[in-house]
Amino acid sequence: MNCVACIEYIVVALMIISAILAVEWRDLLAAAVGMAAVSLFASILFFMLQAPDVAMTEAAIGAALSGAIVIFAVKRTQRFETEEEEKPGWWVRW
Q: How many CA atoms lie within 13 A of 19 on its CB side?
C-alpha cells in the first residue's frame, strides 16, 4: 500500500469522525462547524481522486455556503437544544 492510499484512508476516517460529532454535539453552532468539516474533507478527497472541479464545487457549496446558511439560521434561533420534553404543536390540538 502506498502513501497516497494511507492519506485517503485518513481523510475518510476524519470525515466519518466529523459526521459522527456533527450529529452528537448538542451545541447547534458546533454541529454546523462539524457539518462544514465533513464537506471540507469530502472536497479534499475529491481533489486527491483527481476531480478538481468537483472538489472546488464541494468546497464552495458544501462547506462555505451551506455552513453559512446553517450558522445564520442558528443565530436566529436558540443556540442550544433543551432537554425538556417538547409540547405538542398546534396541529395536534385540532
A: 10
